[in-house]
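Before the break, one more example. Copy the sequence into your notebook; we will annotate it together after we see the structure.
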Amino acid sequence: MAGGKLKKDKPKAKAASAPYQGGISFHKSKGQHILNNPVVVDSIVQKSRIKTTDVILEIGPGTGNLTKKLLDAGKSVVAVELDPRMVLELQRRFQGTPYSHRLKVIQGNVLKTDLPNFDICVANIPYQISSALTFKLLNHQPPFRCAGIMFQREFAMRLVAQPGDNLYCRLSANTQLRAQVSHLLNVGKNNFQPPAKVDSSVVRIEPRKRAPDANLVREFDGLMRICFSIGRTKRLVPFSGRKQFFL
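Here is what the structure looks like once it is written out:
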């Protein structure tokens, strides 16, 4: 495997994929970046405050590194995975183990899937679905207890931004109307395989016990659309120092 053969093994068409043990290639174009640092995985599980009675929803389980830890911590895991190769990998990994009867794998697009009831969501998601998934979860009935989700750092900071912050935006306001949001931990881009282009953060989302009426949510979103469509200076002044507006 020396000399010219090495050059032949680098076709440009495969530049978007990275090899993984077991023969699976991860596709960056599909947002496939597998969290492979066990210390970070353990930290996510610990900070998620999982109960032994919890049914856990995992979105984008990949090859199951986080899935195994979730099965150790909770009652059962429902994993939603789009890539059929990853579904087969999960099934092979847990088949014949004590975990197998506590893991249900659903193949499909999570944004188009009717989600089952669950207590907590823990996920490392493709970042291109961040906003759509956040509000799909907040619309889920019955409401879940909490979610710990890995987002691109900038998106995460917008979620947790407070009135008056430079990153405070329509996303911040609409999310915080319906949930308490807090930052859990930062995750560097080199903790993934293949390495990501950006850093990430895990955010905790807890739906409010008294959920706002659906009509209020729509009207509030319309108001935020107007407020955040004007200049930054004008749009932030009315809300700065008035956090109680969103409680």
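The chain is about 30% helix and 25% strand. Residues 1-22, 233-247 have pLDDT under 50 and may be disordered. Try to locate both features in your own notes.
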